[in-house]
Structures are given as structure tokens and as C-alpha cells.
Amino acid sequence: MATRGAFIAIEGLDRSGKTTQVATLQARLDSEGIPVKLFKFPDRGTAVGKMIDSYLRSQSELDDHAIHLLFSANRWELAAAIEQLLAQGTTVVCDRYAFSGVAFSAAKGLPLEWCRAPDVALPAPDLTLFLDITPEKARERGGYGEERYEKEEMQRQVRDVFRVIASEFDDATWVTIDAGRKQDAVAADIWDCVHPLANGIVGPVQRLWV
Ligand code: Z5A
Q1: What one-character DSSP code corresponds to residue 41?
Q2: Cα separation of 80 and 96, whole Å?
Q3: CB contact at 8 A, 206 and 41
Q4: Is 39 in the pocket of ligand 1 (CB under 6 A)?
Q5: I need a surface site. Which of 63, 120, 162, 164 has the fewest CB within 10 A?
Q6: Which of 51, 96, 147, 150 to mutate to test the pocket of ligand 1 (most atoms within 8 A of CB)?
Q7: Using alpha carbons only, how large is the chain's radius of gyration in Å?
Q8: For ligand 1, what atom is nearest to the CA of residue 42?
Q9: pLDDT tens sequence across 128-149
Q10: Taking the CA of residue 117 as centre, how many other CA atoms within 13 Å lie in the half-sphere pointing to its CB?
């Protein structure tokens, strides 16, 4: 039976090192000759992404429900492309995905189930790696930035919701990694998790929350 590419999501809090680790993972997959394509959500380059970008920079105001739906729409815009790449045997790595959508909006007070609904049936990652970091440790990495959610109290609430989401997955599909360590140690743990999937997966892409 033909294999397809693996779908890997890297999730985490602000400053947890997602961007750094996604780049390191890409380089490692490249060096092993494994085709890989990166996505980053929000993708600020699409029409929907431009509205999200303006909101995150506090250049526009939106109702909490409306921005939540835009984040989800931004994923749906790219869902078909992700599925196509997976079918072609390309490993897809996402820097943030639907779990961020739920975690940030639920942290603002929207009901968890309502937050999940628009992302139901999106392609589900085969593996989600959650880069966990304390707000104190994150602050050491240059402090929080200027975007809307980059505040310590918000990050604490987001971390709590991520813990709830994590508890719904088994150990094979959701792995929490201590991201407060040196980059090489984090990268080594990520590779240990990704390596067994890197040569492809047998079976269809699963659907999120169905
Ligand atoms: N959001 C949402 O509400 N709903 C959704 O559906 C989605 C997102 C998808 C923008 O996300 C916001 O959108 C985000 C969630 C919300 N708000 N917050 N917070 P984003 O992905 O564009 O922005 P970000 O997550 O805040 O990215 P970031 O600040 O760039 O963090 P990062 O990618 O995790 O970290 P990094 O850039 O790799 O590293 C940060 C710094 O730490 C940098 O100087 C590195 O050199 C350094 N670093 C990295 N690793 C280490 C280690 N191990 N030790 C020491 N220093 C390190």
C-alpha cells in the first residue's frame, strides 16, 4: 500500500521557540532527503490573513467570535493544499494549527466546544508537538512583544487551555516537550518523535474532532 506524507503540527506559547524549531526540523528532514513543506498559521499573506494581521497588530477591532472564525477560515483556505501535499508523499509541518485557535479564543472566555466547531473535519495532524514553556522563562527570551495576545496573564490562560486539549489525545499523537531548555536538546526530542513518521504513513489523513 502506498504511503503518504506525515502531518506534523508544532504548537506552543509565545516565545516557546516554534519558529526556530520548525526551521531546524525542516533542515533535518531536507538533509535526510525527505520532502517537506512548511505552513505557518496564521498565514498573513492571504486575504483573510491580512485581516488577522491587522487585528493582531491592534490596527483594527473585531468581535472575539469574528476573529476566531477568521483564524479558522485561514486554515480552511489552505486545507486542500495540505491534503494534496500529503497525498504526494510530502511531509507537512505546521507552525501553529487549530489547537492554537481553540486555546487562544477559549482563554478569552469563549466556550471550548464553540471554539472547536469551525475546525471540525480539517485534516488532523498525525502528531502534535506542544512546546511548553513557563511565562517566566518566555519573558527571559526578550520579553513579550507588542501584539495583542503577548501578555503574561493571557499566556497563562492559554497554557491552561492547551493542557485541557492535550488531555484528550493519546501519547502517540500529542507530545509535550519542555521548550525551556537549550535549542539542541529541544530539537533532539522533536526529531526523536518525528523520525519514526518521516518515511511516510499508511492510511488516510484523519479528520479533526470527528
Ligand atoms: N493565534 C490565534 O489566536 N488563533 C489561531 O488560530 C492561531 C494563532 C493560529 C500570532 O501567532 C498570534 O496568533 C499568537 C496566537 C494567535 N499570539 N500569541 N502569542 P504567531 O505564530 O505569528 O506568533 P508567536 O507564536 O507569538 O510567535 P513567536 O513570538 O515568534 O514565538 P516562537 O515562534 O514560538 O519563538 P521563536 O521566534 O522561535 O523564538 C523566540 C525567541 O527566543 C527568539 O529570539 C529565539 O532566538 C529565542 N529562542 C528560541 N529557542 C530558544 C531556546 N531554546 N533557548 C533560548 N532562546 C531561544
Answers
A1: S
A2: 17
A3: no
A4: no
A5: 63
A6: 96
A7: 16
A8: 9
A9: 999 999 988 888 887 677 889 9
A10: 9
Alpha-carbon distance 21 to 29, whole Å?
12
For residue range 12-49, what is the model confidence (pLDDT) as tens digits? 999 999 999 999 999 999 999 999 999 999 999 999 99
Annotate 164-201 with DSSP letters as a single string. Answer: HHHTTS-TTTEEEEETTS-HHHHHHHHHHHHGGGTT-B
Report the mean per-residue pLDDT for the chain: 96
Ligand 1 centroid, distance to 18 Cα (angstroms):
6
Name the one residue in this structure whose C-alpha cell is 519558529. 19
- pTM exceeding 0.90: yes
DSSP string computed for 141-160: TT---SSTT-SHHHHHHHHH
Rounded to an integer, what distance in angstroms lies between the CA atom of residue 104 and that of residue 91? 26
Contact 85, 6 (CB under 8 A): no
